[in-house]
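Example record

The entry below shows one chain as it appears in the dataset: sequence first, then structure tokens.
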Amino acid sequence: MTNDSVVIKGSREGIFLHLDPQIEFQVLKQKIAAKLSASKEFLAGAQVICDFGPREISAEDITELESLFKLHKLHLKRVNVSRPERSGSGEEKVMALKPMESARGQIHPYADEQTLLIKRTLRSGQSISYDGNVVILGDVNPGAEIVASGNVIVMGALRGVVHAGATGNQGSIVTALRLKPTQLRIAEQITRAPDNDTEEPDVPEIARIKNGIVTIESYVPSERQARAR
């Protein structure tokens, strides 16, 4: 990265902000505001993708960024975050996901030390890209997108595009209270909701790979009736 802590680059998707992961978030936010003020005539109305690199970022941080960009008539489209891990040679690498075990020794499908919690609904045009699990306390509207290297859990209706296990983890799952995605992908397996599927189950559903295909079933231990798609 250059000596500049906030680097702005144009792309076909919009404006990329490459942000120094070593600077404290509030200080970084001030530097972003200064950059935007200096470039407001050229950036107004653009969509913004923020690349934070290997650093901690919370849902509250993302909300603060959205408010900042709105002041400058910009739209936060996506946030990219990676997770570093020190190897024996001292080099940094992306952290491999290791599911935690319960007291009974069983792998919990949602447990992982790297999880991003979003306490809001994702609207059309917004997307989240995260190296870990993503939990949404809200809906994912049509036109919104989630990409995660781990699991995706939506405590509401999932009607946008979702990609779990984006780094190739076929053990990843997608679950939602209303699972009606425009497109659902786990690792390299892709599916979508049928055009004539009007059924609205009254229980949460879970999608995962079984026998090489994505299956969707009710998330009730005693009623596991799979719907292969």
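Notes for this example: The chain has two domains: 1-82, 97-229. The CA atoms of residues 66 and 76 lie 6 Å apart.
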